Every structure is written in C-alpha cells, then in structure tokens.
Amino acid sequence: MLGAHIVTNRGKKGVRFTTWAPNAKNIIVSGDFNSFSLDSNYSMKKVSEYGLWSLFVEGIEAGVRYKYAIEDNKGHIVYKCDPYALESELRPQNASVVHEVKDFKWTDGAWLNKRKKKNMYESPLNIYELHLGSWRRKDGEFMTYEEISEQLPDYIEEMGYTHVEMMPLVEHPLDASWGYQGTGYFSVTSRYGNVEDL
Q: CA torsion sign, 194 to 106 to 186 to 176?
C-alpha cells in the first residue's frame, strides 16, 4: 500500500502515492509532472490519525521521477525520496522513480524439491559473502545484474561455495558504504539495473 503504485481510480489510470509521516504538517508530491515545484494541486491528504498521507495523480506512468516535499510544524520544508519506492535514480541523483511491477514466474521448483530431500544439518556449508559492485568490474565500471548472473554461478561452483550471501542490495547514496546506508528499502540499487534484472 505504501509507496507509488500504478492503479486505476474511478476509471482513470495514474499513480497512488502513499507514505507515513506522522509529524508532517503538509506533504506535496513533487516530480517531473510539476517540475519538482511546491504546487499545492499535488498536496497529499492525511488519511489516518496515525500519519498516513495519500494522493492519486491521474496520467502518471512508469519512469516518472518524484520526491515528497515535507513541511514540518515549524514551516521548514525538506525534499525526501520515498522510502517505499520500488525504483530510485542512479546516484548522485536521489529521486524516487515510479515503477510498474511486472509478474515474475519463479522457475526453481526442481531445485526446491531437491533441497527438501537433502539433510542440510549433515551437509558441508561454505558461504561466500558477495558485494556485487566490487566482485568484478567491466572496463572499470560496475557490471549489470545480467552480466553478473552469467559469470557468478560458475565462479561459485568452481570455488566450492554452497551458499551466497549478498551484501545489501537496497538503494544507497555512497558506493563506499557497500549498501549499508540504505535509503530505498524496497528499491534494489540502480547501479546494476532494476528489480526485473535482479
């Protein structure tokens, strides 16, 4: 429910923006559609006494950038990315991006059945802790999720690892933090691609 979701509201297609900000006095959705202005036509409405705010905006589609302009009780306004966004801009930019979730069909049924038959408590365990951005580079740049997926399984098998622990995949502002300064808790980092690529 929270975040920006493409929906049809009373026969009109657009985006429902919903966030939790219990101490906000006012919130305006600011984005590509209003030149990131403080246009009161995009003011969110407080929909619960517990701090939920919401706004439906007709005509917005996937790929549109946005932020919340949050006014506190002293009249100060700060622009914030959406902590519930499903996509974020590539750093150093930090706007949230409207993302339309596509259906994903899992194809790991055979592997799950095989795993059920194995006694994991009597099997060897060798975990590889992996940071996607520093594991390998391509011409000095980050590899994409797709490029990593073409090389990583062979490397894991060759090195004898049984499990992979990926360091944080959420959006974060600083490469050096390796993902431990998460700002988009539902948004995979755009450094390597989008959620479908992952």
A: negative
